[in-house]
Amino acid sequence: MKDYTFAFNIFDILAYIFVEFLFWLIVLVPTEITPDFFFSSALFSYPFTYIQIPFVLLVAYISGHIIAHFGSLFLEKGIIAKILNYPSTNFFRIISDNSASKPNRFFKNYTAAYPEQLATKIKDAYEQITSIKFNHYDAFMFCFHYVKDKSPTTYSRLLIFLQLYDFCRNVSMMFFFCSFILLYFSIFEYPNLYILSIVLFLLSYLFFLRYLKFFRLYGDEVFRSFYNLYLLERSK
Q1: What is the 8-class DSSP label of residue 92?
Q2: What is the SS3 string spanning 99-112?
Q3: Does the pTM of the predicted model rise above 0.90?
Q4: Contact 175, 203 (CB under 8 A)
Q5: What does residue 47 show for φ and ψ, rounded to 5 degrees?
Q6: For the CA atoms of the chain, what is the radius of gyration?
Q7: What is the DSSP letter of 46?
Q8: How far, in Å, CA of 52 to CA of 124, rounded?
Q9: Binning pLDDT at 50, 70 and 90, where does residue 222 land?
Q10: Which of 52-61, 181-190, 221-230 is the most confident on average?
Q11: What DSSP line would sit under 108-142, residue for residue?
């Protein structure tokens, strides 16, 4: 296979910085906390200069990665892995399966299974190429690399979905953190902030839904593109 690397471009860097700047803006402005509350006051004891910009950007970038880590830990490895399931699992779930009950009923668009005929065709195509029994995770990884190798154009589109769902996950986690921080301040110091806390929690939920949407589109693109490429190869 050709060796393709994930394109870590300027969008990824700016996304991390943007999320962190937005986090500090939401927290610092309503509470009127100065930056030296979190960092050494010596850093802010002098007038702001251009020399400080690289440091501020570096701190924002690193902090953005911290939020991204918690987003991956709580949203993906927590809610997705243990409750809603990964798209590759949902796609090939038997429609009458009771595993789609309870919490999953609130996210039907995300947990919806493929039509049985489509799921069977994709499974058969995978097993015919690999001679390996279909497994959700292994099949997804194989199909992803198959598409990456056979169709660079589709692979570029997959990277867009990957960046979008990653960005929405991080923003959702950021709003969630801000919501609870402001809830704390609304209880002990600023009573009026509870309204903003609720708004931020709703925004967190909204971006979580966007995250689910792009996560499903990402997986769907992988499997459908794999099957289309399989049919194209057979027709040659």
Answers
A1: T
A2: HHCHHHHHHHHHHC
A3: no
A4: yes
A5: -55, 145
A6: 22
A7: S
A8: 58
A9: very high
A10: 221-230
A11: HHHHPPPPHHHHHHHHHHHHHHH-S---HHHHHHH
